[in-house]
């Protein structure tokens, strides 16, 4: 480039244009995006000057004399690269402006795809739908464009109609219409029908053991609150693909919640060996730190995951990453959860995070408004009923409403742990311990959960069933050795006076009354020696 500036006769205008593009491409790959934009702009100016020249100036010296016009970089491709630079710099408006400047007929599918994603991110849904449809018109099997349309509330039947011709013309594509139907259910929040439809797809021989379907199925089970099946599907997916990263953040979060911290640590190490430029490894390590009570490290890792996800311009919502940040920085959670709801309006966990934050800041009214909106948006299922009941429990006026909502939730899903926990909390307030014990025993008949065992232990203590309470605390700790509340309950019981201790004290009193002081005098000196040793050990 310096040579071409010093001697204009050394390179032809087309060669100068090509040099500028090569230089800009190199800067782009070195992540010098602002510098790359500057050089791409210079290249476009050179191209404009070149198009005004009817003849290509012949080159002299050692430069190649072959015609360059046939292999020059496309002006459209240069503008696409500029848009990529702007997105990496988080200047989405400039990226949209560059791509909008390309005439519609000259836009390639990847340009329309980038425009659709940028419009969607900017909230321009109508323009985004138009661009996604243009991608499908050119590439009817572009699954990302199909998912984009479904995420913007375009009806599944309308999307399927755009692929009907290709399905009829190519053999073994009959699964595509069912696939579209399944993800239409996903984006409308109908988790049950989505699970059933994807299961029917997964059973077909052509799509059996498909890792993407298994990952979607695991995520749906997680959304539906069925953590056991979610873990099973994630395990199945990673066995099929040991290098799988997508969805492993949720898998690590679920393992951490179950107290399987060693498995979480191993998973984090494995993911870091695959790539440290994805959010998932950082999330998994953050969950391990959080449940190991290393909160400062967990906060750093969660924030790093959100930053990485943002830098890579991905639209996926990383619930565990937001979970870490919101748990450790509650005031920040309102902003984070609001953004999460915009990214994933059909995910209940987004709303749960925001409602948790409102309750933590004693903003019950805002929490109630949000819970009612969720109830209306996602329908009356066990999860939304429980979420609304959780807010109602915070206000003494709405206690009865909470009870009704929880009864409805448990009628729909008797094994839904969150509903059982909230109903037990309500019964504890009313001091209906026998009813609470019956509820918890029924819930534990077909599943084993640390929290349920611990609450059952608390209820048994309230009715003086100390031995069984101790058993329940032991079971809870065997499921999660880090459960502090179970440990506290057990330690409190151990401090309580046992019947054998009382009997021994009575025996001592009898001995004192009988005048047998001689035998006890020696024991007093021994006791003093043991007390000194115990004090020393305590200091150590």
TrEMBL record:
Each TPR repeat, start to end: 211-244, 450-483
GO BP terms: cell division; positive regulation of mitotic metaphase/anaphase transition; protein ubiquitination
Keyword RNA-binding set for record: no
Classification via SMART domains: TPR
UniProt feature, compositional bias: Basic and acidic residues: 488-498
Example of a GO cellular component annotation carried by this entry: anaphase-promoting complex
Keywords associated with the record: TPR repeat
Region feature Disordered, mapped onto this chain: 488-540
Protein name in the entry: Anaphase-promoting complex subunit 7
The species this protein was found in: Phalacrocorax carbo (Great cormorant)
């Amino acid at each position: 480039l310096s040579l071409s500036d010093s001697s204009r006769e050394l390179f032809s205008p087309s060669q100068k244009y090509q040099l500028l593009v090569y230089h800009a491409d190199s800067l782009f790959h070195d992540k010098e995006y602002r510098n790359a934009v500057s050089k791409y702009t210079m290249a476009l100016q050179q191209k404009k000057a070149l198009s005004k020249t009817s003849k290509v100036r012949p080159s002299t010296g050692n430069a190649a004399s072959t015609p360059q016009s046939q292999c020059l970089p496309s002006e459209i491709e240069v503008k696409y690269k500029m848009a990529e630079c702007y997105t990496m710099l988080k200047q989405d408006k400039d990226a949209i402006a560059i791509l909008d400047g390309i005439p519609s007929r000259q836009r390639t599918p990847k340009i329309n795809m980038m425009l659709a994603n940028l419009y969607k991110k900017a909230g321009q849904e109508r323009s985004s739908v138009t661009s996604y449809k243009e991608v499908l018109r050119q590439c009817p099997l572009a699954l990302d464009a199909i998912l984009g349309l479904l995420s913007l509330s375009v009806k599944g039947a309308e999307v399927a109609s755009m692929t009907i011709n290709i399905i009829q013309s190519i053999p073994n594509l009959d699964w595509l219409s069912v696939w579209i139907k399944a993800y239409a259910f996903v984006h409308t929040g109908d988790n049950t029908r989505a699970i059933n439809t994807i299961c029917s797809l997964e059973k077909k021989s052509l799509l059996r053991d498909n890792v993407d379907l298994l990952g979607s199925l695991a995520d749906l089970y997680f959304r539906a609150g069925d953590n056991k099946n979610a873990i099973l599907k994630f395990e199945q997916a990673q066995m099929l693909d040991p290098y799988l990263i997508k969805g492993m953040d949720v898998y690590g979060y679920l393992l951490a919640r179950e107290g399987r911290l060693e498995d979480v640590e191993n998973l984090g190490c494995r993911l870091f060996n695959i790539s440290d430029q994805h959010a998932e490894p950082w999330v998994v390590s953050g969950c391990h730190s959080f449940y190991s009570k290393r909160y400062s490290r967990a906060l750093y890792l969660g924030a790093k995951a959100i930053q990485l996800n943002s830098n890579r311009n991905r639209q996926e919502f990383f619930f565990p990453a937001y979970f870490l940040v919101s748990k450790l920085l509650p005031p920040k959670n309102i902003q984070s959860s609001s953004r999460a709801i915009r990214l994933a309006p059909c995910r209940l966990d987004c709303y749960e995070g925001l409602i948790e934050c409102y309750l933590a800041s004693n903003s019950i009214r805002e929490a109630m408004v949000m819970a009612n909106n969720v109830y209306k948006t996602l329908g009356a299922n066990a999860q939304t009923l429980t979420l609304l009941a959780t807010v109602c429990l915070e206000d003494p006026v709405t206690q009865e409403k909470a009870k009704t909502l929880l009864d409805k939730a448990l009628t729909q899903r008797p094994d839904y742990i969150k509903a059982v926990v909230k109903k037990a909390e309500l019964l504890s307030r009313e001091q209906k311990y026998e009813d609470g014990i019956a509820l918890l025993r029924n819930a534990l008949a077909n599943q084993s959960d640390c929290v349920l065992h611990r609450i059952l232990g608390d209820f048994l203590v309230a009715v003086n069933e100390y031995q069984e309470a101790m058993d329940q605390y032991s079971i809870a700790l065997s499921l999660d050795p880090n459960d502090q509340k179970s440990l506290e309950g057990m330690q409190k019981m151990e401090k309580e006076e046992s019947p054998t201790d009382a009997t021994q004290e009575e025996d001592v009193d009898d001995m004192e009354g009988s005048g047998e002081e001689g035998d006890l005098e020696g024991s007093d000196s021994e006791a003093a020696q043991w007390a000194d040793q115990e004090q020393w050990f305590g200091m150590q």
